[in-house]
Structures are given as structure tokens and as C-alpha cells.
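Record type: monomer structure entry
Structure origin: computed from sequence
Chain ID: A
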Amino acid sequence: MSDYSPIPISSSSVAPTEIQQPDSLSLEESKRLALTIAEAADDRKGSDIILLNVSEVSYLADYFVLVTGFSNVQVRAIARSIEDKVEEDWQRYPLRTEGKAEGSWILHDYGEVIVHIFMPQERQFYNLEAFWGHAERIEYTSLANS
């Protein structure tokens, strides 16, 4: 038999912990968030930056942002740059982050925008551009190249 006995807690004595979800963004605001993310990735020399407007073909998000980094360190630096820029400009944090420990494919889920930061091998293998080929594709042009 266990020594554990649950202690009843009155609902009035403990305030429920509520995680505030950010307000939903319009499609135009989602695009601006995706562009902010692309700029932050570009600041860390992310390559082949593509925005996919998946709002018409998926309920998962409005936009995907795909970025290539050429080392695990660079992939992590791009991810951190995106986190910092979105926090600073939008006061938003990723709802979920995956892959930071490995650093070969990091995913940030901002709700309306999902970011994929890949090493070249992972990007080629998973080929999300082809999988979501029916989505509108927006090429990002680096501000440094303008």
C-alpha cells in the first residue's frame, strides 16, 4: 500500500494557470511575420529562403518559411536570430520548437507561420517545396543583394 494520499485543494484557493495564446493574425499579418522571420534568417546568412503560402491548401498554418544553414552551428544561430527578432518585433514566442539539440533541422511553430531551418541534406531529403508544390511560392530576396 502506498503512503501517498492526495491532498484536496479547494478551487478557490488556487488560481488556475492559464497560458495566453497570442491573438490570431490576419493573412496579411501572417505574411508580415513570415517576412520578419525571413529577414532574421538572412541576418545569419541563411540560404535559399522561401515562403510558402499554404493558407489555401492546409489548416496547419498560413505560411511556411524554409531556410538552409550549412552547419549545425549556423542552423542554431539562424533559429536563435528568428526567436530574438520575432520576440522583439512581434512580442511572440514559438508555440513549439523541435530539433534544437540535433541542429540539422529545427522547427519553430508560431501558429500562423511554421519555420523549417535545415541542413542541405535534410532539406533535399524531405523536399517540402515539392510536397507543398501546390502552395504559392514566394522567393525571398536578401536585402544585402538589393
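Annotation 1: The longest helix spans residues 72-90.
Annotation 2: The chain has one domain: 27-137.
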